[in-house]
User: What shape does this take?
Amino acid sequence: MPERLIFHIDVNSAFLSWEATDRLRRGETTDLRTIPSAVGGDREKRRGVVLAKSIPAKKYGVTTGEPLVDALRKCPGLLCVPARHDLYSQCSRAFIRVLSRFAPVIEQVSVDEAFADMTGTSLLYGPPLDAAARIKDTIRNELGFTVNVGISSNKLLAKMASDFEKPDRIHTLFPHEIAQKMWPLPVGRLFLVGHATQKQLKDLGIHTIGDLAKSSPELLYSHLKKQGRTIWNYANGIDSRPVEAQPADAKCYGNETTLPEDVTDFTAACAILLQLSESVAARLRADQVRASCITVKYTDYRFGVQSHQRTLASSTNVTEEIYRTAASLLSQMWENRIPLRLLGVSASRITDSDFYQYNLFDGEKYERLSKLDTAIDSIRSRFGSDAVKRGRFLPPRS
Assistant: This one.
């Protein structure tokens, strides 16, 4: 069986590149990528955040995600253009179409990045570096923008490789290269190590990815629980996740919402999760089924997508149990509080069994919550969805 060969393909400064490419096609002579420029916000009103910036803007210290007013303070001559998400969606689809011509399996993880399983394609495209060059050059020549390609034997290392020097580059990070290329990097460069985790690791004397790789897994678990084991594996280049074109085919009850404005506050995000959990749980009860797996998904302001799931000890259709699980999942996966533009909750592993093994709640509390949900469903079916509202959704008293 051939060794796994995984590519991670990442569009360089996607929104800005797509803006620049489209404007050049329409006759503009200035390439946004060659001057201090940024996508996002409203320069006249000096509000909003930087969604993407050019390399010349980066030299002034402009960073993705910072308020536009701060970016303009660093670079008064910054050319700001408004975001056009319809255009970005079109460019993203074109990007994936090109990848699909080369790779048997594509997993798109955000609007501007994807994994490609290239295992067994050497007879078609030659060695990995040659195959990556063909993909990269085809995208540049046909679509007008550049990408980085990371090459390895698993998804984690391929993604780390694609984040090395940019733009328009190809990098490898195979297991035998980890000590030289990855271990000297600051630990904050490792996937899943956000600011809060980085601080905890620093308190443990762990400053580089190499320090993390050589540390005690037991020590990490005692401080970071399950995440400690995961990042120790990642620091050592261990990742068995497959490249998946689609989620497994399974019955699923879900609901998601695009937020009217970006959310960075955990309490506000939890209020949205509660509304979504109510909707999902009500549909489960209407079909007289229960779910034993809860998934939370979010899309951030740059269209990066993350999801976490948890399998319960027993299936449920109780709103409060689904909500508490969803809130716990969000807390684990959203430690850096990056602005969110979409939240979703889904329930899977569906069964019509009414067996329940008490886990989050004792028996009496579970039965009480179950009866409460049934009563609320009954009232709403007779008098409308607004007939009963949770107290936290009511406007504050004046």
